[in-house]
Write a structure and sequence with these properties.
about 170 residues, four-stranded antiparallel beta sheet, three-stranded antiparallel beta sheet, 3 helices
Length: about 170
């Protein structure tokens, strides 16, 4: 009887410790996201932007200001924040690109093509400047099963931005 009680106490302690650690981890993730959001809002205000659409990814936020035709991207790398602004008036083309790793001869017999996927990006070709990419999926940070949903998100943004480019080309006074 006493061994059952001891086993129950040990199991209860382990479960309690796990719950505590998960709670601490979630609280830390929430705090980090709140800090990222605070920095993002500060940059949006400083640049006079008003966002109509946004996307929260693992360590970044991107948002579209449709009226000013700009996209603000804020990323967090370790303890540092980075940001860049994409002026859609300077964008030639926007497309989703999937980047694959090295595939040796015969590898596709045993493995699916998606297992070689390294990243999915929203790629911007910009007039008179180097191209810019917003990474939606990378095999280092995401699980392969997330690639489908993240590609759908990237394609959704591609469709929105392509429509904006077409309407702007049709009526450049907008």
């Amino acid at each position: 009887m006493s061994t059952i009680i001891i086993a129950a106490i040990i199991i209860g302690s382990i479960v309690g410790l796990c719950v505590l650690l998960v709670s601490i981890h979630n609280k830390e993730k929430r705090r980090e996201m709140n800090n990222l959001l605070k920095y993002f809002n500060q940059l949006g205000t400083e640049n006079g932007l008003s966002f109509s659409s946004n996307e929260f990814l693992k360590n970044k936020i991107m948002a579209l200001d449709g009226l000013n035709r700009k996209i603000l991207v804020v990323t967090k790398e370790g303890n540092y924040y980075g940001s860049y602004l994409i002026d859609l008036n300077q964008v030639k083309n926007c497309s989703v690109k999937k980047v694959y790793g090295t595939i040796n001869g015969g590898d596709l017999k045993n493995r699916k093509l998606e297992q070689f996927l390294e990243k999915i990006v929203l790629h911007f070709e910009i007039y008179n400047k180097s191209s810019v990419e917003i990474i939606f999926y990378t095999h280092f940070e995401n699980h392969i099963y997330e690639s489908i949903d993240l590609e759908k998100k990237a394609r959704h943004w591609e469709a929105i931005l392509s429509k904006m480019q077409q309407s702007h080309k049709a009526n450049p006074l907008l």
